[in-house]
Specification:
CATH architecture: 3-Layer(aba) Sandwich
Strand order of the largest sheet: 2-3-1-4-5
Order of helices and strands: EHEHHEHEHHEH
Largest sheet: 5 strands, parallel
Number of domains: 1
Mean pLDDT: 88
Distance between the termini: 45 Å
Strand content: 5-15%
Low-confidence stretches: 200-208
Number of helices: 7
CATH class: Alpha Beta
CATH superfamily: P-loop containing nucleotide triphosphate hydrolases
Structural class: alpha/beta
Helix content: 25-40%
Length: 211
């Protein structure tokens, strides 16, 4: 009988501004883990808010509470051998550091895009434009702080990288850190929506193109 060693859990924590590309890369990574036969789950910031954190607002305390809840669930999953993918904005360094210490096997991935890029090209609901005009307050990156990670395991610049290039760099880093045996992209073309993020769906149930 062939012995398959137990899968060791870990958490990949994507952080960055709204629209930077966190959920897009998270979805792609989820399918890569599945293609390798790994147990995997996604904890998306907006989806968790609708369920586990329903009723929370956007004060610093409520944002921290949401992140700590995501971190608590991620730690449980990681401890039980799940490759866990988290993609909340998670704007505050202290809270991210707390979650890192709690989980242990933690890979922080900073997904970078500027406010100018996001407001010009990735603002389908017009929220950045409203925030910049003062019509919305407490918007992360505009009048509410986003604290850039100082020493993430990986930084992805989605203004110069395609989603496929960002995915490849993520797989390569996970291999370097010992979490994956190989960094080959195994899933090409359209990907069935996981149902765990707020990305747009096509009529066939695939992830819509674009970030």
């Amino acid at each position: 009988m062939t012995h398959h060693p137990e899968q060791k859990g870990f958490t990949v924590w994507f952080t960055g501004l709204s629209g930077a590309g966190k959920s897009t890369i998270a979805e792609m990574l989820y399918h890569e883990f599945q293609a390798r036969g790994m147990k995997t789950e996604i904890l998306d910031g907006d989806v968790v808010r609708q369920n586990l954190s329903k009723g929370l607002g956007f004060s610093k305390q409520d944002r921290d509470t949401n992140i700590l809840r995501i971190g608590f669930v991620a730690e449980l999953l990681t401890r039980n051998g799940v490759a866990t993918i988290c993609c909340p904005i998670s704007p505050y360094k202290e809270t991210r550091d707390h979650v890192r210490a709690q989980i242990g096997a933690f890979v922080e991935v900073y997904v970078h895009a500027t406010i100018d890029e996001l407001s010009r090209n990735r603002d389908p609901k017009g929220l950045y434009k409203k925030a910049l005009a003062g019509e919305i307050t407490g918007f992360t990156g505009v009048d509410d702080p986003y604290e850039v990670p100082e020493h993430p395991e990986l930084m992805l610049d989605t203004m110069v990288e395609t989603p496929e290039e960002s995915l490849q760099r993520t797989l390569t880093r996970l291999k370097e850190l010992g979490y994956l045996e190989d960094d080959e992209v195994m899933v090409e073309g359209d990907r069935q929506h996981s149902g765990m993020t707020d990305l747009r769906l096509t009529e066939t149930g695939d992830v819509a193109k674009g970030r």
